[in-house]
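Q: What would this complex look like in 3D?
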Amino acid sequence: MFTPYEERKTEVPFASSEYFSFAARSSFLGCPARPMNDLGDAGVVILGAPFDIGTTYRAGARFGPAAIRNADYGAMDGYRPHLPTGIDPFETLGVVDIGDVMVTPADMERSIEEIADTVAHVAEAGKVPIILGGDHTITWPNAMGIARTHGFGEFALIHFDAHADTGFLQRGSLVGHGTPMRRLIESGAVPGHRFVQIGLRGYWPEPDVMEWGREQKMRTFLMSQIVDEGLDKVVDDAVDYAIGGGAKGVFISVDIDVVDPGLAPGTGTPEPGGLNSREILDTIRRLAKDLNVLGGDIVEVSPPYDGPGEQTAYLANRVVLEMLNGMAERKTSAG
Amino acid sequence: MFTPYEERKTEVPFASSEYFSFAARSSFLGCPARPMNDLGDAGVVILGAPFDIGTTYRAGARFGPAAIRNADYGAMDGYRPHLPTGIDPFETLGVVDIGDVMVTPADMERSIEEIADTVAHVAEAGKVPIILGGDHTITWPNAMGIARTHGFGEFALIHFDAHADTGFLQRGSLVGHGTPMRRLIESGAVPGHRFVQIGLRGYWPEPDVMEWGREQKMRTFLMSQIVDEGLDKVVDDAVDYAIGGGAKGVFISVDIDVVDPGLAPGTGTPEPGGLNSREILDTIRRLAKDLNVLGGDIVEVSPPYDGPGEQTAYLANRVVLEMLNGMAERKTSAG
Amino acid sequence: MFTPYEERKTEVPFASSEYFSFAARSSFLGCPARPMNDLGDAGVVILGAPFDIGTTYRAGARFGPAAIRNADYGAMDGYRPHLPTGIDPFETLGVVDIGDVMVTPADMERSIEEIADTVAHVAEAGKVPIILGGDHTITWPNAMGIARTHGFGEFALIHFDAHADTGFLQRGSLVGHGTPMRRLIESGAVPGHRFVQIGLRGYWPEPDVMEWGREQKMRTFLMSQIVDEGLDKVVDDAVDYAIGGGAKGVFISVDIDVVDPGLAPGTGTPEPGGLNSREILDTIRRLAKDLNVLGGDIVEVSPPYDGPGEQTAYLANRVVLEMLNGMAERKTSAG
Amino acid sequence: MFTPYEERKTEVPFASSEYFSFAARSSFLGCPARPMNDLGDAGVVILGAPFDIGTTYRAGARFGPAAIRNADYGAMDGYRPHLPTGIDPFETLGVVDIGDVMVTPADMERSIEEIADTVAHVAEAGKVPIILGGDHTITWPNAMGIARTHGFGEFALIHFDAHADTGFLQRGSLVGHGTPMRRLIESGAVPGHRFVQIGLRGYWPEPDVMEWGREQKMRTFLMSQIVDEGLDKVVDDAVDYAIGGGAKGVFISVDIDVVDPGLAPGTGTPEPGGLNSREILDTIRRLAKDLNVLGGDIVEVSPPYDGPGEQTAYLANRVVLEMLNGMAERKTSAG
Amino acid sequence: MFTPYEERKTEVPFASSEYFSFAARSSFLGCPARPMNDLGDAGVVILGAPFDIGTTYRAGARFGPAAIRNADYGAMDGYRPHLPTGIDPFETLGVVDIGDVMVTPADMERSIEEIADTVAHVAEAGKVPIILGGDHTITWPNAMGIARTHGFGEFALIHFDAHADTGFLQRGSLVGHGTPMRRLIESGAVPGHRFVQIGLRGYWPEPDVMEWGREQKMRTFLMSQIVDEGLDKVVDDAVDYAIGGGAKGVFISVDIDVVDPGLAPGTGTPEPGGLNSREILDTIRRLAKDLNVLGGDIVEVSPPYDGPGEQTAYLANRVVLEMLNGMAERKTSAG
Amino acid sequence: MFTPYEERKTEVPFASSEYFSFAARSSFLGCPARPMNDLGDAGVVILGAPFDIGTTYRAGARFGPAAIRNADYGAMDGYRPHLPTGIDPFETLGVVDIGDVMVTPADMERSIEEIADTVAHVAEAGKVPIILGGDHTITWPNAMGIARTHGFGEFALIHFDAHADTGFLQRGSLVGHGTPMRRLIESGAVPGHRFVQIGLRGYWPEPDVMEWGREQKMRTFLMSQIVDEGLDKVVDDAVDYAIGGGAKGVFISVDIDVVDPGLAPGTGTPEPGGLNSREILDTIRRLAKDLNVLGGDIVEVSPPYDGPGEQTAYLANRVVLEMLNGMAERKTSAG
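A: Here is my prediction, written as structure tokens for the whole assembly.
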């Protein structure tokens, strides 16, 4: 029988995304879609957080999850064997997609809470959540969700970004894409000495904010330092720092604006002079292989500012894939 | 258990679209997705035909089905009550989406045959197929599918277009988006005297081709005639002509280029001077209300040539909705 | 002496817009910029409300005020004599621009309140505020600001839109661009019988919401009615309705999506089948000439979705100009 | 033998366009290309004037000739039979293309002179020149070239535009796209009483400039008048006015911005509220059929501001085609 | 006398391109255009193959030949002296353009055959053909044409690409842009041990396909290997491999997607993480200087997905120019 | 009192830009705006030169000054502390913006003269002028203005560009964006031996022009040389050369097309194969720190050809910021 609208409406699962307008309507590269309450035996769970009301400039990252999931020319069959290794991370890890968290633009707090709850739910089920943003505000609930499961202060956060995102207030608000890292430090979810930031540049935040970060023992690698020392050395240091002091694992947060906006223009707060595509892909794969990834996110992809070729969404899609590939190699080599 | 790729591959249903790269990945406005072999009690079946290798100029209509299905700002919940009537055509008619027909660019003949088979399958199940194109080549298999079910010569075809599409050959080939109407006449599926064409203009086809159409007793309304006589009168005539001589019903084919390219720029062969948006929407609704619609298609939406606001895809989406609304009003008033 | 940053920061006037990132950085067509606390003898005050967190789909209207102010090819000299009349509304009325209201995306309530306060401040000074949006949420505080000054229930609201915007809740929130008209009716600021809506079409809101509007005695003109009766007759009726029952004046709210998205694609929730450019311009001018305008707004211009030619922003700019021209003609003819 | 560069350079014909960078590289719709000094028995000669240094705002019209020539989806075979009549104007009239006049951005005067010389050369050979612009500055040399051949004051100029283009000075210069009509009147080439202007609107030029035009007995139809009286009546009047007083023929100048920028966004100084596509096409065809066309131009198409669908260039291409069609019908009916 | 259309139609030369709609309408950078049957004493012959029906995702490469030929800001005079050497390759080599091969989208086989025939015709005349694509399918007929002249198995193919293009079937078809290299190996035209592939990355093709390539003794350099070893070393190896075993010369095939899509977004199947612009240009020039080039192609440029600045078409144009420059240096130094 | 238009018109300051149509309407990143005749104690003066009539291909650089000033996501508050140093160059140097020089497209000579006069005025006041272009023609008046103050032949010019810009004539004119460097040498303002050019590549100008440059003792670094020797070494040489022979200081001219068009597509004459973003930013900062900067310009940003993300304008904005930062570091370290 044809199910009428009213009846179907009651079937909406918790983290489903079909019932609000800017949610993504398909799964990441066609991997299996699962409801929140039946994650199966997957090892990795993809979810979207189409949240962009924390942005201080260009909006549009609400369409990021949809764009990232579909930015590919291959069949949407959940099968992507890695050329250098032949490993298909989808099969090796078991990857499912639970759709987008229900975001309410008019209710920032509730949205933040729902993201944190969903991430925690996934983590508690023993899976690794990978969250597709959305603006960078979401790393606050993302890492909070991980902390609720794996313990406050128990994991490191490796943060790729042009910006430190450690502001105290953002136009009078504690919440926004310029403040998540401070919120995480303040809450104890990720203490400063477990933070590694890579790719910072430009003219923000102010010196006193940077000074605060140093006091918190955040480890910060500016682009100028990467140019001077070489990326390999910086990543070596990052790995050492991240696993130092007995961290259980890492959360990897990639703001696409860590990449040069000439290469990744579809973003809200572009800062020229960043990494190139090859560098971010290789670095993410290496980190996911060398470290125990507890979760990750890719944020600040804003499709209305991307080129007609959608190069930014494609790059973000590959950042996720390389993270999966690194994790799959780690799992494979671990036997 | 997590199903590996190889196993899942065997589950591909006949008309599914998840396994090729440019297929649409969601259903029309979120209406229920159904497999080919289980259409349920729906009255209308949406399907996509992402076929654009029949185009003589700009390609890109292969992305038409995906764009048309998603061109909306509302929740993807398969619920769209019409403002003037309050009728929700999805519930009134029962509308499901079976995804995209498997098109093989390198094998035009097989693709054509699969489209015809799928349309016939739907029609034979007693449902009304509405096909999202794709270029206008597909009206040939679309109407052939209808003819196999409802009888050759037994229904009228009302054709909105800037172009007559009655060419004999297209760069040496019988198949293409410039020839479908001739193929239909030649095959007897839709004889010339059951053809109504509305909106023709410009400088193609050649006078002898137009003469051939007149010999076939095709009824043709040029834009210049619409300007002179008024659209209302032309549609009155079209209705009379379409139901004349005992036709069982009609197939409505809408080439989006019947609309002025200033309003609907995302198309392959734009011809300035067409209808406006309001005119096409009202006309389609009226026809679907006044006539017995056996099937319909909307073709030639080419997303890479659309504006950033996607105005062409939105208009095509509403052409489908107004067709559904007219059918729903007809059904409702019929009690 | 060169004033350092810290000192200059203290000089920020109330409604200034230079100190947040997506504020407009120039005045409407170069008319004089004035601070909030020194409006001078201007008769009309332009202000921006770069608020787009109430939108349910595409964002971007935060860049509307900047785009509308600059959408012109002439010198930015605050001089625009009307071709048919020779009247320069800037000089006739005295028009100044006080910049953008300080909007805090993360604090919807405070933003709403600041908009209402600013509008009320302008109205209380005896000037006519014209607000450049932003999404349609702002008509709630806009008209509230007018009501605080001119009295609750004392003026009519003529509302051009594809959508009724009378939703009860928007994803659980009372505030958003789908609900402002209901909030105004509920608050008594503009009772239902003082509402005229023109241009509605499509498939939203649901029948019970439309029924609620009828119960409130809202006067609603669907596009289908405009097609049937002609725009002139509809506007005649609207004028009669608006001045009926002793209203002191009108607030005119123009959602750019009342215009066909083929012509005005740069908007968040495009609904095909609307008015054309000439119709909206002539109608606005006529209304502003025939009625006592207490305030007005133009909303939902979203520049990232506009074409490279910025046609939507240009049209919105002219909507404001024609409103000013109508008001200037009224003033001139009043002697 | 392969001809080296130095030798080929000497073969550049007068009006050839292959040797400067922004010249068009093909002929109008593939009609025969001819050198200036060998026009053959063609009746109509197309030429480009890629001149845009007279524009006061957006540039880009230098790419207009190339875009207009190629804005078509058909074979470039110089064959375009008109659907309503079956007449192919290329064959009926004999149409050739002599390429682009050599424009020197750094030398405005010389460029103007070369355009005038080329047009005069064509006219003196008894052919009808149709010039593809370029900004509207070129109508000055275009009509001067006609006047040198057919006599000063001996022909009418029908001018479609949003703007009167009768400014006295343009930022201190006598030459530019805001002044050509005044230069023509002052020079006696086209006296005011032989000028008909259709489609004016907006807020420019100033009242004293419009007054000057009235003193010159220019016949001006504002868009507001067209709305009130209907386009048919206005065109009737225009025809009467143009052939009144014994004019030998007409020059038709079409600024694409006479059309609504919603439909034709690719232009430099867009003024909302114009004609629609159908209206300009039908009007141009009618005028070219009813009047003796001595020359014509289509100007202000600026490709960088057009949409991805190139709708503005397509429309301009059809304006030329309809002008040719009207001329061909006139010739055919004249026997 | 003016030649009517019917007569002119008979003059179409074999490989002319003026008579179908998406053919290029000018020669490469203005070099001399020649008919197929009169190639003169040129050493290099440019031709276009606007074939894109082999693509599995985005189409549009049919407009590649036109875009590549015109992607320049200089005069179209067939003169481009190389800055580092002062050599003008057009004069040194003698370069002519024979236009586009007549492609029939509806007849893939015939199109493939015509491309192969044309390339063979050029090669047999002792000239070096350089083919502008078009999708990568064309490398199959391109290299077949070379093989018919210079011998099956007698030359090496250096292949720059993100993808191996060695698929067995493409949606059931043997022909397409994912299979040309397998077809070449199977046919013996280019045996596996004469293949060098540079730049591969991503997640396609499947491991068994890569294994098949290794069995064929294809030499494959992944991007990861290039990062590890340095491009210089990889190119050294490629040169050694290519001239090993007595090959007569090389065919160089450049898929523009070997370059990072951040830099070259206008392509159909973008794979992030590729070479940069400087690297591809220098490498192509070096190879063309160090090796005996028998032919070359540049493929997969899809203009509708390029940015407004046309950066991808410009880069492809320079790939051709650097190939010509390398060949010219080789010829010059050979005395 | 409200000041009417006529009175306000008389208040136009010398270098103000509010009164012509394509002038920028805000100051660089919100730094204080000052009138020409009251520069205060600022050390650096920003000005715009929206001049693009010297370009030989794409226009649009007239919108460069507006785009560059606003290409940022931060508040427009004239405060940008540098992340690596914490220094805010706005406060350290004192930076003001005097708006755009009044450019008259129709009068090239007068425009050139006004630019030179304005630059000289600023320099004579003891400030460092930084000019935002506009096309590269303006470096002629820019450096002339410096020479009038600091002496002919007394300073070096470091020129970043894909093109040498040393042409003798440009389509018959001495003035244009291909000739400024020759004009400067000929005039003695900057003798050849004080010229350093970095980043040249491609196929222009001709060998004899390059030879002339060598005779003038210009120091030229082609991209090929940068690839071979490394950028560090080239910049070392450039610094040595620039300060050799007792030059008082340097003028730094940055044509944005020195950067690869894949990264900076919004420019008029893109030449693939350039520097990357990081390289230009670091190099400019280093030069401004190591050398005594007397003035600088950034030219050839053409917004209509930029991507939707405006990556080119952002990069140009940072080129200015890094120049300021280098100068600020120099001043700070000088104590």
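A: To summarize the key features: DSSP finds eleven helices and eight strands in chain B. The interface with chain F takes residues 308 of chain B (CB under 8 Å).
Q: Very helpful, thank you.
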